[in-house]
Amino acid sequence: MSETFTEISPQQAWELIENEGATLADIRDARRYVYSHPQDAFHLTNESYGRFLDEVDYEEPVIVICYHGVSSRNTAQFLVEQGFDRVYSVKGGFDGWERSGLPIETAY
Asked: What's the rounded mean pLDDT across residues 68-92?
């Protein structure tokens, strides 16, 4: 088990999702998440954490994304401390994801 998470680019995150079925956890606020988020992202909040634990295996890769890639680091480290084996934080956050042209879902 790793002691810490790894920072990766949005493109590396997409490759992990595509090639290894990684779970992407978006920790932004509900309003921003509903407006637009990475395709198939799980909205991880204090309220949804229990469901997250039910749906995600500790051995699966987990990628955390936030606004700009800062607060996701804390959540990623928390998940490592909870026993998740492979945890990643997206450098540049959702802004970087959008700038990279990766798939997003929008409410409009």
From this structure: 97
Angle (CA) 43-104-18 rounded to 5° is: 85
Distance (Å) of CA 65 to CA 68, 91:
8, 8
**Phi/psi class of residue 83: alpha, beta or left (left: φ > 0; alpha: ψ in -120 to 50)?**
left
Q: Does 82 participate in catalysis according to the annotation? A: no
List the structure tokens of 83. 């026993």
CA distances from 106 to 13, 15, 70 (A): 19, 21, 23
Detail the DSSP E strand segments found in 2-99. Answer: 6-8, 23-26, 36-38, 42-43, 61-65, 86-90
Q: Which residues of 45-64 are buried (b: 16+ CB within 10 A; e: fewer)?
A: beeeeeebeeebeeeebbbb
Query: Which residue is catalytic, options 41, 66, 80, 87?
Result: 66
Q: How far apart are CA 13 and CA 93, in angstroms?
A: 11
Q: Is the pTM of this model over 0.90?
A: yes
